[in-house]
Amino acid sequence: MNSSAQAAPTVPKRRWFDRRTPLPSEVGQHRTTAFIYGNILVLAAVVQVSLHPITGRSVVTVLATAVTTFLAHVFADVITSTWSWRTVRHAARDSGPILTSGIIPAALLLLVPLFGLPSSWAVLLAELLLVARIAAVGLVVARLRTEPTSLSTVLAGIALALLALIIVVTKAVLTH
What we know:
The protein is 74% helix and 0% strand.
């Protein structure tokens, strides 16, 4: 075979959910931390409210957990760096996954008082969603870094979800 007829290197196709460019390591780390932290705390809030009848107050509790955790995360980021509005914007953007962890679970719980959905179904769906989000953390990290995913990525996510469940159950037992 002629050496001049070498095939051009193939460029891997970008998946529709991949970032165009990887995030800087520190930014990806902040967002991943916020993602995990928010999901665990919101899951703990859902477990706590599930011990009582689901009402509008339950929904407020879950949303308040997400919002106050977001604010605390932004506050901690801002006071540990040079203060500026730019720092606040970056800290808020990187803490955004905390807010996203509370929206759908709160909406699912809201279906109980509004439409009479059985509370056990709403709680179960909210809990499953949050556990699935935690289990997907490896996929999230791979996406932020524009790296391929593998079976070990998925298995590590499942292990993380189990550890998160242990944390949540421990909190529920100790604070109930």
